[in-house]
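Tutorial, part two.
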Amino acid sequence: MDWCGYLAKRKGSVMAAKWNLIVDVERCDNCRNCFLATKDEHIGNDFPGYAAPQPTHGASWVDIERKERGTWPVVEANFMPTMCNHCDDAPCMKVAKDNAIKKRDDGIVIIDPVKAKGQRAIVDACPYGAVYWNEELQIPQAWIFDAHLLDQGWRQPRMEQSCPTNVFRALKVDDSDMQRIQAEEGLDVLQPELGTKPRVYYKNLHLMTTCFAAGAVVVAVAGVEECAEGAEVSVQQDGREVASATTDLFGEFKVDKLAPNSGRYRLVVKHGAGQSASIDFDVAGESVYLGAIIVK
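Running the prediction step on this input gives:
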């Protein structure tokens, strides 16, 4: 191959479009259509070269994690779909024997349903718990990104097709474009410290991983306590503002993305002409409700 041909081939390899999945935690309402659609696609259906049939019970290739945050009277429940992350540096591939797992050029990881027979170590190697053991067939299995459908020309996997709230967005783009999208939309991956380089990205992941502080601001008007709409709320730590909010019609506020067990904060409220208040609070492992804060 001449030099120009080599460069062209190298460029084409580097810029190859690959599949990625964006999951918006804020949009998920736990309807479980994604779970059911994946079951419907794979239970009792054999797709040679892609996946053997999923067992009826005990395997959730697509599942939903639940996280409750807050205490009365401000409590919320959030839901996060989970599945195989199709990692670029997949731990499962490192323990697989006889090329039982392959990373396709489009980024999708496939566990060969024939070559992987008996290799239970593949299940144990996944740090996300996304690989399941099929006891009847004696093979490890995981969500295949519906590669069998994408190879037929589908533009989205079944989970995305079935979701009524647009939680999922499958994208086939080159890595540089995906890095740009990740930065622009503030996307995160699960457990980035593992260095597995997942191709599943999460939007609003803070709803599962961080804490909030909520409360209500009250102002005294002619001896009567009223809701302080439009009050400016600032949360500070070590003299630096880390979050802010403006109270709503009912004087209520919520400041989010506070790290669990992050220690002591000071909340400063300003309202109207010179009215202010401040309180100190701690964030341990849970979100906190600060009650009514009276500005004077």
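The chain has two domains: 21-207, 211-295. In part three we will examine how such features are distributed along the chain.
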